[in-house]
């Protein structure tokens, strides 16, 4: 059908001010080249369209526009899809200035059951859409249902949770995401994207994902919670966080991974001028616990990322209670800063947490600054935690101000099962601090630190130009090769 629906107000309760469709076996609905303008109702589901699709029913909405549509859920469209139902929205559909009081400013979609499919792709735009949950889109997927989101733009969308998208995936629900851009989106949690993945739910990202000028309290670009679920990011192109900000934690990305949840990033991830104001993790803030695992395998770069009121200008990572963090490939922290510790990176590894860096090229901290300690890197390893770094790790022009400790890195190791192992080469070039121009090392309570090879060049401090150590009751401190 090709139509224009303009200024339709539905009073009282009900669903779909313009269209209400119940689609079952053999039913097909095509809406094409249509306009929906100011379709709304104060207590309805689906400001313009309400769809109930089941038993193999199908609906397609193509090349249509939704402007100033409003509802309780689904300002433009509300859809329930189950028992092999299918909904496709494609062909450059636009959602402009749409609102929902509760969820899905542009679209609300709820999917149940295996073989149910929601497809959102091919140049769709959401502009200035607003809702409490999912300014542009709210998606619930359970019981092996599937969602595909491809070639979609979210611009100036707002919400409390997920400025552009809020995505819930559980009970083996599957979401495939590619070629998505979030620009100038705002939310309390997840300025661009909020995702909650649980009970073997899965999200796969296969192509470009961009967060530009997005902001939130937690996770300026993306807020992710994984509890027995997984996110696999394997893009042909890069994942980009550019000028994203958080009031508290995770200027670009906030991730909480637990109960066997997995976050896997393969290929290239870039953070440019991301920052947090009162918390930690200017680029990334991640908490991994209870068997959760965070893996990066490829290239991860942080440029001019700042933590103005906490730790970890580029990356803040806490790994605890058998959580694991595995980092492979190449890592760069350039011109990153923090107000306290870890100008480039801050690691807190406790209670049998485990972090492994296995660099195939190098880990480079370049011109990073921390006011408290660890101009480039701070690592706190306690109560059975373990940190292992293999390959070349370089610190260039890193420093601490205001009586700081460890111009290049600050290392604290505490507890009989706690270990810090550098099995490659550490290089410090022109690093400075008050104590420990290159390294500030604090060890006690039967902990272990092993460093295979260290090179210091032009490093300076009032105490310990290369290394300042504060050691007591140590099980093992070993440095095999030291060059100054």
From TrEMBL:
> Which InterPro entries does this chain map to?
Pectin_lyase_fold/virulence (IPR011050), WDR48 (IPR051246)
Q: Which SUPFAM superfamilies match?
A: Pectin lyase-like
Q: Which domain of life is it from?
A: Eukaryota
GO MF term set: ubiquitin binding
Give the protein name, as stated in the record: Right handed beta helix domain-containing protein
Biological-process GO terms, alphabetical? double-strand break repair via homologous recombination
